[in-house]
């Protein structure tokens, strides 16, 4: 059956954009520029711990608890370094604020293969397009710097909306903004829980970007799985 789609919503991280290098390497390079020596493996482990603890204590960048996302991230970075044995608070603040700015730009992000062409083709075919992402408010800037922003009518981040995927309200906001019924919309993302299942729970269609051999969730029919983004058009134009 032909899908009568009018709206496509998109996840960003690891769907359209990915980090140019592992996070630990960016952190190590910035530390070194400030004369601080630390091991990338230790930093990567420390980051997972610090990020996890901050996310549990202050969900969605502390949006409901009076934190700015900048303060949220600065705290995560400083805690990451403290857990790796670096305790000079003055230098940690400098490193953290510099990293916050750097992750705002195309310096640390690259467009996934096929993303630019797929977005262009979808626009040419007349689909309306929006972003639904658990990102902080730097996302508009990141998308502009990576030359993707012009494809989208709107960019919804969990920080702006106040709800993070898989909360249905962030998807409902996208549908409301576009005045499109759930069955006329499809979401594209790489997370089974936050993207695929969450969008379907609102009545939207959904496509799961998943490289071959990544965890096989049995509930995903093969026609909903995208081995690469370039597979999307063939599926929605059937």
Any overview of this molecule?
- Helices cover 46% and strands 13% of the residues.
- The chain is an alpha/beta fold and 238 residues long.
- The chain has two domains: 7-16 and 112-234, Rossmann fold, CATH 3.40.50; 23-107, Orthogonal Bundle (DNA polymerase, domain 1), CATH 1.10.150.
- It has a six-stranded parallel β-sheet. A two-stranded antiparallel ribbon has the order 2-3.
- The mean pLDDT is 94.
Concise structural overview:
One of its GO terms (cellular component) is nucleus. This protein is an alpha/beta fold.
Describe the SSE topology.
Elements: E1 7-10, E2 17-19, H1 23-33, H2 40-57, H3 59-62, H4 69-83, H5 89-102, E3 109-111, H6 115-124, E4 128-133, H7 139-145, E5 154-157, H8 158-161, H9 168-178, E6 185-189, H10 192-201, E7 205-209, E8 225-226, H11 232-236
Helix pairs in contact: 1-2, 1-5, 2-4, 4-5
GO cellular component, one term: nucleus
Pfam families: Hydrolase
Protein name: Haloacid dehalogenase-like hydrolase domain-containing protein 3
